[in-house]
Amino acid sequence: MIGNLETFQDELAASGFPPLVNKLAGAGFRGRIATRDLGPLRLVSLETPESACFGRERDASDGENLAVKVMTWGRTRIEQGRGEAELGPTDLVLLDPTRTVRFESTAAAHVTILVPRRELRIRPAQIDRLIGVRIDGSHGPGALVSVLARESARSATGFRQAEALRSAAAVVELIAVALEARLGDGQPAPDERLRDRITGYIEARLADPDLSPPSIAAAHHISVRRLHKLFEDQPLTVAALIRRRRLERCRAELTGSGRTVTAVAARWGFSDPTHFSKLFKATYGYNARALVTSNRAPTTKTRTVGPGKDGGDQGRQQQEEKSWRR
What we know:
By secondary structure, the chain is of the alpha+beta class. The protein has 13 helices and twelve strands.
């Protein structure tokens, strides 16, 4: 369908895309969008005028899918994670809908495949290395994915359920091969390997109330300043990453567990129940107690928070980080 900006954005949202702000969109905006499903995959064909878009970080609960964007014609420059991709016709890029993204595009056409994360079987550390990185669509596995994506977007109709599932599995396998080939183009730098180890260390010790930048730095035989340097180009600072992952663990455990908010907060390193409740409400937009009383997660949309701003409490975070650096 062809639509103005409001209609186009509504259709994008219905297709599973994150909300984007287009700085160049005006009253004369016209875009074309077509959506097809193939088993667990969703293929979205887009034609857009010249654009300059920005999308904010979204909650991890909105991250069921990853997106593989394939250019048909036109050119696009995309920034996400540590990657910056200049895409021309046939090129592709992997994007994470939960992360901040910026892109500038000429008038262009592209196909985006929304793929459930679980289907790709790629570790988070590998995804971090691939996000926002150009994959050549002119040869090798990338070319197969590029051709298949563009053809599937036009012809993915009339499949029986079993045929759709088998076809989707083949598409996912080709995408995985292309991504693995891109990973093989270069080994991670020493800083990336160290950051991956530190992220795993944090994940394994979220329940430890003493987990902090100084303790993490000491365990890896580096200075606190060096630790913060490793994460300066990441979506979250070390302190914000710890808080975000603890909040996510708390929310998961409170849903249907029957345990008290105070008990769950303490289990995941929050010693002050009042501070935890305020932080939880500011981050997710509803009270933690609602998960206990309703025995299910509310349908309220989570409030988007920017990188390093859990609950929008940037001032408190900066104070904590200053105290930890001392």
